[in-house]
Amino acid sequence: MRLRVDPIACEAHGLCAELLPELIELDEWGYPVIVDAQVPAALEQLARRAVSACPTLALRLQAQARSVSPGRELAE
Amino acid sequence: MTLPRLLTGVTQSPMPWDRHLQVHGDPQTNQRPEELLAHVKRSGLRGRGGGSFPLATKMQAVRRSRGTPILLVNGCEGEPMSAKDRLLMVCLPHLVIDGALTVARAIGADEILIAVDELNVRAGETVQWALTQRPELRGSGRVPEILWTPSGIVSGQESALVRWCNDGIAKPVAVPPRVTERGISRRPTLVANVETLAHVALIARHGADWFRRLGTVEDPGSALVTVTGAVRHPGVYEIALGCTLRALLGSAGGQSEPVRSLLVGGYAGTWIDATEASTARLARRELSGLGTRLGAGILVALPASACPVAETTRVAGWLAEQTAGQCGPCVNGLASIADELADVRDGSAGPDALGRLQRWCELATGRGACAHPDGTAAFVASALRVFAVEFLDHMRHGPCDACEAPPVLTVPGRLAAA
After folding, report:
1. Which residue, among A24, A27, A66, A74, would best test binding to B if mutated, counting the most B CBs under 10 Å from its CB?
2. DSSP reduced 3-state for B359
3. What is the pLDDT, as a whole number, of residue A73?
4. Nearest chain B alpha carbon to A30
5. Are the CB atoms for B71 and B113 separated by under 8 Å?
């Protein structure tokens, strides 16, 4: 599973970094920096909690990266 | 056939239909879609709007998607230092229309929109004029339409154009589906730059092998480059990809005064040192080795008489204002970068200003819905690298004599409040 942030939806509530500090840090403006997008199995439960805690539904867990095609992936 | 290709017979005034036929011959817009697609694929043509994405891959993606496709011709040209798309629309509109009709046919599109910056009235009106001359469009209910778009560097981004059509908001989106799957009116949408389509116009006539006769195996064909700054004859030039930067400067008449550095790729591009640049070739692999890319085809020669700190600071300030205001890392990161740069220029920055700038450039990269923060960060980070001495000098001593010199890098003037 991979962690992704929808940068438009994100409003810097910061709950994700609190619930999943192993993979998410906050920048100086409070927006999440994903340290490692690949979620280890041991952290999957916590990652799901972080995803459901996001007030703007900006944090997502995706099965795997999509194939390469035009346009831009969700920012990691 | 050698150069020029696209620019054959170009003059200051729009080339009319009969003259266009004399110069280039029949447009060959009636080839079978599969045949055209095969030509484009074999030609290796990549997008000339900045993304360098293979056109055939986009065309195939649109053809695979469900629904009747729309072709969106991108003539927005939001990069202030670029003039090549405007030149094509104003002087060679039929070449762009040829390419658009050809690609529309190849992907099965029944609708063509041509996006033009609302301030670029002349380009839009010239294309409109050219459309009235096309015999194949007479009496047709499917005449391409001009889509006037808000001015700005972000509004010409492909998802922003689609959103402008759908919702009247010219801002990028972050969430799939891609526009090739579901774009304008939920239909598969192909967004292609006007120069890319002009190349298709000639590929349809002469074939893929002909196209590959110029350029390199990896970067085939010719390309339009806008060359400005300290050159004798600033303007738009057509070059074979893979030629040296020195040759490109040569086609613009060579340096008009000593050059300190070159800006390659425009305001989302990067600075490179004039000495390391002189022998570099305009090919993706070689340029990426220098940490840069041709982008939308822009080269600015910064004269030694200009202040690179003042130039970079002014442009970074404008780029920060160009944010769509949607993504936190872009809104905050670019504003912080612009403010800190201004402090550095004025000699009022704290001791770790350059470290902070470096960190903010990293933080702005890869965290927006579009590539605007990435491009701005790359531009600023390259300036910190190439002009390290000048930045330190400004931090210690404040503005230099050249800070007040007339700008080499221009930013669009603000419009009076409506």
Report:
1. A27
2. helix
3. 40
4. B328
5. yes
Given CA atoms B171, B87, B18, B208 in this order, what sign does their dihedral have? negative
Quick one: tokens of B356?
């902070």
Which pairing describes strands B298-303 and A32-34: parallel, antiparallel, or unpaired? unpaired
B354-413, pLDDT tens digit by residue? Answer: 999 999 999 999 999 999 999 999 999 999 999 999 999 999 999 999 999 999 999 987
Helix (H, G, I), strand (E, B) or coil at B75: strand
Backbone angles phi, psi at B130, to 5 degrees: -65, -35
Task: Write down the pLDDT at residue A65.
Answer: 55
**Contact across the interface for B173 and A70, Cβ inside 8 Å:** no
Residue A72 and residue B370: Cβ atoms within 8 Å? yes
CA distances for B244 relative to B174, B241, B259, B280, angstroms = 37, 9, 16, 5
Contact assessment for residue B222 and residue B5, using Cβ atoms and an 8 Å cutoff: yes
| Residue located via tokens 């700038």 | B357
Cα–Cα dist B135/B359, whole Å: 57
Distance from chain centroid for Cα B17 = 27
Check if the beta carbon of residue B289 is closer than 8 Å to that of residue B415.
no
Write out pLDDT tens, residues B179-202. Answer: 999 999 999 999 999 999 999 999
Q: Give me the residue label for tokens 């040759």.
A: B247
Calculate mean pLDDT across residues B34-42. Answer: 97
Query: Looking only at Cα atoms, what is the longest distance across chain B?
Result: 69
3-state secondary structure of B222: strand
> Best interface-test mutation with B: which of A31, A60, A62, A72 has the largest number of B CBs within 10 A?
A72
Tell me: the pLDDT tens digits for B113-125? 999 999 999 999 9
Neighbours of B202 (CB within 10 A): 24
Helices (H), B228-352: 245-251, 274-277, 284-289, 308-321, 328-346
Cα separation, B161 vs B165, in Å, equals 6
Integer angstrom CA distances of residue B275 from B140, B271, B278, B367:
56, 12, 6, 33
Contact B246, B278 (CB under 8 A): yes
The Cα A57–Cα A54 span in angstroms is: 5
Provide the pLDDT for residue B31.
Answer: 87
